[in-house]
Amino acid sequence: MGKLSNRVNTISESQTIAMARKSRELKAQGVDIISLSLGEPDFATPDIIKNAAKKAIDDNFSYYTHVSGYVELREAICKKFERDNGLHYTADEIVVSTGAKQSIANAVLCLVNPGDEVIVPAPFWVSYLEIVKLAEGQSVIITAGIEADFKITPQQLEAAITPKSKLIILSTPCNPTGSVYNKEELRALSAVILKHPELYVLSDEIYEHINFCGGHESFAQFEGMKDRVITINGVSKGFAMTGWRGGIMAAPKWIAQACDKMQGQFTSATSSITQKAMHKAMELDYATYIEPMRAAFLKRRDLVYGLMKDIPGFKTNLPQGAFYFYPEVSYYFGKSFGAHHIQNATDLSLFLLDVAHVALVPGAAFGDDKYIRFSYATSEANLTEALKRMKEALAKLQ
Ligand code: PMP
Ligand code: GLU
């Protein structure tokens, strides 16, 4: 085997994707795995969106588009920001990509120089640190524990800022904790950011539509912040379109232009058919198509929260958005069953995969291996069975 670059050798494989692969392999061997590892809605993409894509194929909308997405799509995205978030953008401040993941990578690679510091509140989503590593930036982690509902304070943020700080990456609603920053909390963080003119915010709002606390608050809404915030969104989560690969970034024009240039050398535009589907998604009647999915997620959250009360040693918050639980599980550390000796959440996840046939993701992927993350974006029957299996398996640990 030849020698790979240091660049790829310094990053780890995405653990969400690795766990999903492992459970697919076991399923293919005939093992009855319930997979709660990968965060993706189990709903079908709404027919009205699928029909727009079918029409695009029949209309031969099959050519390269503008790298940032065709202009009418970007105008529809501007209308979405105006309508849903009270933010005024023009089409040249929007870049459509192959997913929120690419949008994040574009922004980080365009802003971060080697040695620049990127502040990342923990728990964080798996890919942030690895993307920062690719840019040769230095992640500076601020931890917010379960007692703070996993949300950082302005004081913590202030203390983490140095002359090298370039970016802070924050997700609200948060993957993995489901925590949602309210308007006052975001305003207080904004006040700190505004004191540091060289600091930018990458606000990952991909879970905007999966919110159980009365509505989404965008980071860019506060006086002075629109010039400092790169808002990340997309169609994967809210519109059940993970495989379509459609990401959205709204940012100051100079950043959007840089991301267009970067993307023009890597992937060009996302699929023209996906763009037509995204266009329909931007104009969708949310009450008819989006609200039923949100309501189903809320019902599942409550179901799982109830079932988890019966599992000894799982400490959890009550998630206010997204579709994950992130319980603290250190109660089981030091316990054993057969060849399984549990010392951390990675051991516990492997134990649960092996004994309960339930796949989830250890907290190591999100900054703390005392936690496990599982997605509740699956049927109530699957969730009930998964929690039953977990409870029975955990009872075997002595
Ligand atoms: N950000 C967060 C917080 C996520 O959970 C995910 C996972 N899908 C992404 C970004 C990437 O989403 P996409 O499918 O649009 O690339
Ligand atoms: N974002 C989802 C998750 O956290 C999908 C996996 C990924 O893109 O890494 O599970």
Structure description:
By secondary structure, the protein is α/β, with parallel strands linked by helices. The chain has 2 domains: 144 residues, Aspartate Aminotransferase, domain 1, CATH 3.90.1150.10; 239 residues, Aspartate Aminotransferase, domain 2 (3-Layer(aba) Sandwich). The chain has 14 helices and 14 strands. A hairpin with a 2-residue loop joins strand 10 and strand 11. Helix 4 packs parallel to helix 10 and helix 5 crosses helix 9. Bound molecules: 4'-deoxy-4'-aminopyridoxal-5'-phosphate and glutamic acid (GLU). 4'-deoxy-4'-aminopyridoxal-5'-phosphate (PMP) binds next to helix 5.
Ligand kinds: 4'-deoxy-4'-aminopyridoxal-5'-phosphate, glutamic acid
Shape: globular
Note poorly predicted spans. Answer: none
- Put simply, the count of helices is 14
> Which fold name fills CATH's third level, the topology of the largest domain?
Aspartate Aminotransferase, domain 2
Instruction: Give me the oligomer status.
Output: single chain
Strand order, main sheet: write it out.
2-8-7-6-5-3-4
- Supply the number of structural domains: 2
Strand residue content = 5-15%
CATH architecture of the largest domain: 3-Layer(aba) Sandwich
Rg for CA atoms: 21 Å
CATH homologous superfamily caption of the largest domain: Type I PLP-dependent aspartate aminotransferase-like (Major domain)
Q: Tally of extended strands? A: 14
Secondary structure: elements and pairs:
Layout: H1 6-10, H2 15-28, E1 34-35, H3 47-58, H4 71-85, E2 94-97, H5 100-111, E3 117-122, H6 127-134, E4 138-143, H7 154-160, E5 165-171, H8 183-194, E6 200-204, E7 229-234, E8 247-250, H9 253-266, H10 272-282, H11 286-289, H12 291-308, E9 324-325, E10 336-337, E11 340-341, H13 345-356, E12 358-359, E13 361-362, E14 372-375, H14 380-394
Parallel strand pairs: 1-12, 3-4, 3-5, 5-6, 6-7
Antiparallel strand pairs: 2-8, 7-8, 9-14, 10-11, 13-14
The protein binds 4'-deoxy-4'-aminopyridoxal-5'-phosphate (PMP) and glutamic acid.
The site of glutamic acid has 10 residues, from α2.
